[in-house]
Write a structure and sequence with these properties.
Length: 209
Amino acid sequence: MTAPRRFTGDRLVIATHNAGKVREIAALLAPYAKHFPSAGSLGLPEPAETGLTFRQNAELKAKAAAKASNLPALADDSGLIIPALGGKPGLHSALWAGPQKDFAFAMQRVHHALILSDAPESSVACFTCALSLAWPDGHAETFEGIISGALTWPPRGEHGFGYDPIFIPVSDTRTFAEIDHDAKTRISHRATAFRQLVAGCFAPKDSPC
Ligand code: IMP
């Protein structure tokens, strides 16, 4: 097996238009890159997420941004997986919020779908995240992280984004939206994928090697 390609520049595009993801990825990236513009700030188009897995979608978004910007690009594809709903909303987690990206509505949908499911008392859920780092020549390195937990209703907390107010990580009694930003950044599915990315592809920005 060949070693993952290392990131050696000082500019890296955060290939997402989701402000919540930009905030979390920028905090994770700070020790490893000097400049990390987002796809939104560069006016890059949002590619259609036609992949069949989180991994495939992360790769296609990273490759599209790397090609369009001529810079290495890091993309995230993530979502909430609920076993009692057969894994939904899963790959379609963003779509459940509708064109207005209304996550209060998306969380309601989850709540109603669970009530109507065969296991309405089940609260088991996971967040999963694939992070893909791609270069303008089309090469990509991809890593995945997962965190398990439980769903709660009604939503609680003001931090975070997306489904954070209904998700309680297994190590806590608070929802992701009640935990402060730094604490979520240490334990989340995104942080787990990021640790693997760092081990494979990054050296600290002041490292001589
Ligand atoms: P996509 O990766 O652009 O398809 O969007 C994934 C969707 O999953 C986001 O819009 C959020 O709704 C949800 N999601 C992913 N990660 C998180 C998280 O850390 N907290 C809350 N919701 C998340």
